[in-house]
Amino acid sequence: MTFAAVMLSLVGLLAVFRGIMAIAEDEVFLTTRNYVFEFDLTGWGWVHLALGVVAVIVSIGLFQAATWARVLGVGIAGLVIIANFLSLPYYPVWSVIMITMSGFIIWGLCVARKEDFGDPFDTMPPGDR
């Protein structure tokens, strides 16, 4: 769970930075002709910025082991995968990296069991409760 929380906060921060770069229409992005999912770069910037902000907020909930954050984390990571797939022609290598990181986030959130992430401030071993 902690792994997924750290990864989601990193993905969120990187998406925020990517969104700001795209809104500012930085020279870093490529433009590919004849791509089926062609959108305005500024529009993609706002999408990545919004997803990044929500991802950071959800990661804070994951650090507190909230169930709502776990469910939303899977959803946000899925949306990050879709957004990065659709924006592949603008920043291809980074999009593939973000898709991979988001896949690990979904994996981390889906394999964690409830007893694995009890009270984060509880120092008593599970067998002594």
UniProtKB/TrEMBL annotation:
The chain crosses the membrane at residues 46-63, 68-87, 93-112. Keywords: Membrane, Transmembrane, Transmembrane helix. The keyword Transcription regulation does not apply. Residues 2-113 form the DUF7144 domain. Pfam families: DUF7144. The keyword Transmembrane applies. This is DUF7144 domain-containing protein. It comes from Streptomyces thermocoprophilus.
